[in-house]
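Closing statement on the nickel (II) ion sub-project.
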Amino acid sequence: MIRPILIHPDPRLKKLCTPVPDLSDGLRTLADDMLETMYDAPGIGLAAPQIGVLERVIVMDCVKEEGEAPKPMVLFNPEIIGSSDDTSVYEEGCLSIPDQFAEVTRPSEVEVRWINRDGNEETQVFSGLWATCIQHEIDHLNGKLFIDHIGTMKRQLITRKMQKLKRDIARGKA
Ligand code: NI
């Protein structure tokens, strides 16, 4: 089921999310809904707070090549356990901040541990776009947005644009 995506600014996007307990069918359904919502948007990553669920769940699929098989990933309680000193700069966007982009510097590689859809622990090193995406999504679980990594002026400008967008949506004009 496709769920509505919250638009910044929203207090639910600023909250520290809680770890999920043992996996249940309800949590698997949540993850499936998140993947469906992400692909529909379309986007390459989505965190549970973006659909108003304040729990530590993210989904992603950074496969971008035409014709390449999709690689949907579901991560419960993801945790960064190591980061490279090398950094990369990517122009980031966010489904909760539509049509706004900014360059963000982050570690190029991160090692992440999480619980997968089968309830098993996995550990993997991510690099390239995957590394940026997973850090962006884990930030969401800690109430942080990509605009919190950029200068105050640009952040305020983007936030004002989003406030206007939300007013327009509320009036049925967007
Ligand atoms: Ni985002």
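The chain has one domain: 11-170. With this model delivered, the sub-project is considered complete and its resources will be redirected to Aim 3.
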